[in-house]
Amino acid sequence: MSEQNKAGLPFIKMHGLGNDFVVIDLRGGLDAPAPELVARIADRHRGVGFDQMATIQGDADGAADARLVFWNADGSRSGACGNATRCIARLLMDELGADRLALRTDHTVLQAEDVGAGLTRVNMGAPVLDWRAIPLARDVDIDHLPITGDPVATGMGNPHMTFFVPDAGLVDLERFGPLHEHHPLYPERTNVEVVQVLSPDQIILRIWERGTGVTLASGSCSCAAVVAAARRGLTGRRVTVNVPGGRLLIDWREDGVWMEGPTAEVFRGTLTPAWLADG
User: Fold this and answer.
1) With a threshold of 0.90, does the pTM exceed it?
2) The pLDDT of residue 6 is above 80
């Protein structure tokens, strides 16, 4: 355990539509957690529990208001996490007394804004539609992958595989998700989305996130699902996404894919020095 963390490790628990996060603010000089510690904190029985973890750092060149780094529950890094970005945007806008700000991620610099009524909107950037950058293992038609079920590949700072089905509720996601997360076409694994189209402006979405499992919501998965549906001609580009945890509004514009929805800060706490040392 580092000298900085001997007094314990403070954290904030947040969620967006039940997609829950542990947020650690490193701007005061705390050390970033090692992957092994991330996985311990993710344990819902012996730690805190989360779908993803995010850390807040200062932005090195000052072009953004902060830099965010994301981890999955297994301790692996994630390039993007839309709901965590919205949650932290709300946290920092309240802290700064601002109604908009910029957040740097491994993927890009994301613009966030307060839209009133307790809702926060984030531009998740342009979707990645080149097979090399998603990334895929070889050159294939990303709108019709050579996989049973005819899924679509999209990048939203992390890789996605989107299936369209008649009834999303009938899919055994606990089996279906890991089977496709590790598909050899995806060298970095993939998030898996199962989509039921209700109308040109509304879908039902169920989610398996790589390194985490089934989640109640996911911002990047919602964005990828709408991009995939629009490219297939199944929906327009402004779509309400119904996830088990609630609803997100996704709007694929010329300047990127905007995601809008509620956020919640649940509690603040401190991981004790004894617990940190036990690992």
Assistant:
1) yes
2) no
